[in-house]
Amino acid sequence: MATANVGGINIVYEIVGSSGPVMALMPGARRGSAEMKPLAEKIAAKGFLVVLHDRRNTGGSDMLLDSSDTEEGIWADELHGLLGQLGLLPAYISGSSSGARTAINYALRHPDALRGLLLIRVTGGEFAANRLPQNYYRNFIEAAESGGMEAVGEIARFQEYFATNPKTRDQLMAMDPKDFIDIQSTLLDKFLAGANLPVMGFTEAQLGTIKVPTLVVPGNDNTHSSQSGRIAHDLIKGSEMHELPISDQDVDLVSWEEWNDLEPEIAETFSAFMQRHEKAGG
Asked: Which of 23, 87, 194, 231 is deepest in the core (most CB within 10 A)?
């Protein structure tokens, strides 16, 4: 893994593969990039450079809690800055769940630096709109209100972050609980503004502006319903959809690990999609 300073934030990244068109691949939630490496290796083996990076506040990258924009918006801008530093623009941008939301933000903010979008496990629907604000923000606010930063640090999300980036523990413990609550409350408000849209975070008009080649792979749980993927496909005009050989499950979340056996098909589908559009562009 290497490190690049993007706007004052140290971002840990890795390039998988030796040559070919560039693709950036992101996981969901606030997880580091490591869980996507097996898929990245499968795609790279088919002739692509795949960029993995730990987004701000995840994995080995720096922590800077900031409420000036949505998390996915900040992540999109920092990914653009990282790829620009590395001389790897334009690129295909891909992600699962929050990674897919980051990819869509990238498409809206940096359309000239984009070859195409590959969206996995699109988030949407009433269940996700109720579940994610609690998991992403309210749990942290409630912990800080009841037990200060010590209580926040006991939440699994931060325990995982401390394990990959130990210095963040001291940073978090040094925060004033009031400042932390203010940041999380503002982020919650920004998240809620788009939480109830059919494709979480994006209006039909916004999705209608996306003109690059786009492929959607729907999910199969209540947070990433297959219906949300189909809606994204309908709203992004000219997009393609690939449905995996899976059935919808009435569970909150199917973990990425449970999709491990699907990675060869995802890699083959992604590679064929990108190769086809590379030939058409050429």
From this structure: 23
